[in-house]
Amino acid sequence: MNQTSLGFSSSRAMAGAGFMVLAGIAFAGLNVVTQWLTMKLGFPATAMAFWQYAFAFLFSLPFLRRVGLSAMRTDYPWRHVARVVLAAFGVGAWVSGLAHVPIWQAIALVMTSPFFIILGARLFLGERVGAARWAATAVGFAGAMIILEPWSDSFSWAAFLPILSALLWGASSLITKSLTSLERPETITVWLLVLLTPINGAIALSAGFTMPDGTALGFLLLAGILTVVAQYLLTLAYTVADAAYVQPFDDLKLPLNVFAGWLVFGYAPTGYLWIGAVLILGASLFIMRNEMRCERAAPATGTV
């Protein structure tokens, strides 16, 4: 019985790791497509965000048909709206960032999102942070500053856009966290799918709407497909294995995106990237292990 259980757990762990790595590859491909469209072809970032998620919405219609719009029934509509609005502006900031900065820099900076979640949890959810979390957050942001190099002559203010997207996505994640104890997963997912496209559409209209054609249309269709595939693989990873186990595999998105940027655009990251990345990744992994340790200790001590 123990051997069967062990084999089953091992297979689920392998599957979770595999799905997370595949999701990272899909996201790296999506980032390459996004940067090619916005930086090389000059397609507007706001229009890119709209069409990407509009096509992703179309590819998600089978899921919406299966769960039905009745899944949107909720007692917290404005909380859902706020969550999706923050996510939409986060997408806009991310796409705009990829239009100006190399993939390796953008992906490293957006990995500061967990630290914004920690700050937000303290400010808005009243969670206790503690010295370990504060120290890890400080180290993570120090790593971001090393990657940004605001003292360098080559510094561009556009480099702050990935950090802005991390802040907005972190705020959206906090609202999602507050909803998970109140709503079904289907309700949270359907609200996102249904609202994201019109909100992105309003943002695109305010900046001057652009219709895609030719090469741009093909790239946008590919972006929509990669968005759905990446999100689906991510969901599978968290479904078959514990989040604490698969999360370190998500950190592989940094080398995957560095490799994709070098392969397609010839971007060669500076040595400062790896110094800053080690600080960000180390702080993130420390927080994760610290949380796991606290969760294991909670039942025995009665603390949270």
| Pattern of helices and strands | HHHHHHHHHHHHH
Helix count from the secondary structure assignment: 13
> What quaternary form is this?
single chain
Could you tell me the mean pLDDT?
81
Beta-sheet strand percentage? under 5%
Describe this structure in words.
The protein is mostly helical and 304 residues long. It contains 13 helices and no strands. Helix 4 (77-98) runs antiparallel to helix 8. It is globular, with a radius of gyration of 20 Å. Mean pLDDT is 81; it is low at 1-8 and 300-304.
Attribute tags:
mainly alpha; 80% helix; disordered C terminus; 304 residues; globular; single chain
Describe the secondary-structure layout.
Elements: H1 2-40, H2 45-59, H3 61-67, H4 77-98, H5 103-110, H6 113-124, H7 130-148, H8 160-180, H9 185-206, H10 214-240, H11 243-250, H12 253-265, H13 271-301
Describe the structure in brief:
The chain is an all-alpha fold. The protein has helices spanning 2-40, 45-59, 61-67, 77-98, 103-110, 113-124, 130-148, 160-180, 185-206, 214-240, 243-250, 253-265, 271-301.
